[in-house]
C-alpha cells in the first residue's frame, strides 16, 4: 500500500520519511531577503565585488535560521538538550537568583542549592532554535540586559545579556535554563510567555548569531553527556531525572 507524504512514522515501520531541505524560520527570512536584495542590486549595477559576497552572505543567513524538525524522546524521565552545539562546561553551581528568589508573583522557584549546570555553546554554524528540555508550564521568563562577551567563558552566565526560563512539570518538578547572548549575538527572541504549556522539545526561542544555553539539572541528577560532546536540540538526552552515575569518555 502506498504511503502518503507527511504520514506519521512509528517503530512499526508505518509512515513515510525522507531528507528534505529544512524550512527557514520566519524570524530570519527578512534578513536573508535583505541580503538577497542588496546582492541583486549590486549585480544590476555591475558591482561584482559587492554582489558575490552578499550572495554568499544571504546563503549563510538562510542557513543560520534553518529550523529542522526533531524527533523528541518520549519519556518523562529524560531532559533533552535545549540547543544544538558543543557541551563546553559542566559545573556545580547555584542557579541564578532570578530562578530562585521570591519575585512576589506567587510563582514557584528553584531551591537555593548547588546543582549541575550544563553549558552548551552554539557557533554560527549550529541551528539556533532553542527548545524546551522538559514538558510543562512556563512559570517564569526573565530578561536581563548585559554585556556581549565570549559566550564560551564561565562568567558569561552572570555578565552577558540573558533570558531565564523556568518550567514546571505536571508533577511539580522544576527545571530552569538560560539563553545567553555572545560576542556576535545581539538579540534573544522569545517564542513563549509565562503560562504557556509546552511539550518536551517545543520551540521556545532563538538567539541571533552565536550564543550559549545553560541548563540547571534537578538535584540528585547527573549528566549523561560529557564536555566536548556535540548535542542536538530536542533529541540528545542530557540527563535522566533522579539518575546518579559517573560517565567517562576519551576525546578523539
UniProtKB/TrEMBL annotation:
Transmembrane regions: 31-64
One Gene Ontology MF term: phosphatidylserine decarboxylase activity
Bilayer topology term: Peripheral membrane protein
Pathway(s) served: Phospholipid metabolism; phosphatidylethanolamine biosynthesis; phosphatidylethanolamine from CDP-diacylglycerol: step 2/2
Name of the gene this protein is made from: psd
Similarity-based family: Belongs to the phosphatidylserine decarboxylase family. PSD-A subfamily.
Catalytic activity entry: a 1,2-diacyl-sn-glycero-3-phospho-L-serine + H(+) = a 1,2-diacyl-sn-glycero-3-phosphoethanolamine + CO2
Keywords assigned: Cell membrane, Decarboxylase, Lipid biosynthesis, Lipid metabolism, Lyase, Membrane, Phospholipid biosynthesis, Phospholipid metabolism, Pyruvate, Transmembrane, Transmembrane helix, Zymogen
Modified residues (Pyruvic acid (Ser)): 211
Active site: 211 (schiff-base intermediate with substrate)
Signal peptide: none
Lineage: Bacteria, Pseudomonadati, Pseudomonadota, Alphaproteobacteria, Sphingomonadales
Record-listed E.C. numbers: 4.1.1.65
GO biological process, one term: phosphatidylethanolamine biosynthetic process
PANTHER family linked: ARCHAETIDYLSERINE DECARBOXYLASE PROENZYME-RELATED
Protein function: Catalyzes the formation of phosphatidylethanolamine (PtdEtn) from phosphatidylserine (PtdSer).
Necessary cofactors: pyruvate
Pfam families xref list: PS_Dcarbxylase
Cofactor: how bound: Binds 1 pyruvoyl group covalently per subunit.
GO CC field: plasma membrane
Compartments, as annotated in UniProt: Cell membrane
Protein name stated in the entry: Phosphatidylserine decarboxylase proenzyme
Processing and modification events after translation: Is synthesized initially as an inactive proenzyme. Formation of the active enzyme involves a self-maturation process in which the active site pyruvoyl group is generated from an internal serine residue via an autocatalytic post-translational modification. Two non-identical subunits are generated from the proenzyme in this reaction, and the pyruvate is formed at the N-terminus of the alpha chain, which is derived from the carboxyl end of the proenzyme.
Enzyme class at the top of the EC tree: lyase
Site description Cleavage (non-hydrolytic), residues in chain: 210-211
